[in-house]
Amino acid sequence: MFSFLLGCLLLFLLLSGAKSVLRGNPRVLAMKGERILAAIIFITVIVLLLAGLWIVALIVLPMVLALLGLHMLWNPALPNMALPRFRTRYLDAAIDIRTKQMRAQVRSGKHAGFNLDKLALEDILGLFNEFADDPESCSLLAAYLDRRFPHWRKDPHAHAHTRQAGARSTHALSEEEAYEILGLQKGATVEEIREAHRRLMKRLHPDIGGTAWLAAKLNAAKELLVETHYKNSTRSN
């Protein structure tokens, strides 16, 4: 009985501490929250196991996940949500939101079919010259490098390429592209569109490791789809 009460007390203290963290600086939480919450869950389960509460540990673990609001690990909402996908003239890329890892492949040009994961930094930097006539591809390439080589912009040969990546593009999204960027299937509701946008911005906003280009694409995709949805609703009425 004493072990049970001790375990419950410690669990309460851990959850209280976790809630305090969640009420703290949201930017810091967004950047480091995964590790902090994972550590809290790990400690909680260890405490219960040490108290001999094996069954309770197995029961409490999903409760802890739910209470802490770990949507990345526990949230079946938006079942039709796929990996957000970004296509440009030269590149086709998808982002795993849980890990923030990006997978990209060259779509056209001299290196068509090449998987960027198999190329060295020097080879990838050389692609900026090949993509020079398409600012969108340069911006997407820079976003890929930010994830795989966080310090690539310090490379002496990268300065000119960062200017290419920052060039403004006049490319207008299609409805199909907008759905792919938000990881949604055609026909998603306005609520699903806004929820997908909210989740992705939490992971890809420039302030928490994303890029301005990715954030702009997410905003443009949401605005296009919401506007299209309301236009269709007005016509049907």
Would you mind describing this structure in some detail?
Strands 1-2-3 form a 3-stranded antiparallel beta sheet. Helix 2 packs antiparallel against helix 3, helix 4 packs antiparallel against helix 5 (135-148) and helix 8 packs antiparallel against helix 9. 59% of the residues lie in helices and 6% in strands. By secondary structure, the chain is mainly α. The protein contains 9 helices and 3 strands; from the N terminus they run αααβββαααααα. Residues 21-31 and 70-79 have low confidence and may be disordered.
Distance between the termini: 65 Å
Tertiary shape:
flat
Strand order, biggest sheet? 1-2-3
Characterize the main sheet.
3 strands, antiparallel
Percent of residues in β-strands: 5-15%
What percent of the residues sit in helical stretches (DSSP H or I)? Answer: 55-70%
Low-confidence stretches: 21-31, 70-79
Output the number of helix runs: 9
Radius of gyration: 22 Å
Q: What class do helices, strands and sheet pairing give?
A: mainly alpha
Mean pLDDT: 77
Order of helices and strands: HHHEEEHHHHHH
**Secondary structure: number of strands:** 3
Features:
237 residues, three-stranded antiparallel β-sheet, 6% strand, flat
Describe the structure concisely.
The protein is mainly alpha-helical. It has helices spanning 2-22, 26-50, 54-68, 121-130, 135-148, 159-165, 175-182, 190-204, 212-236; strands at 85-87, 91-96, 101-106.
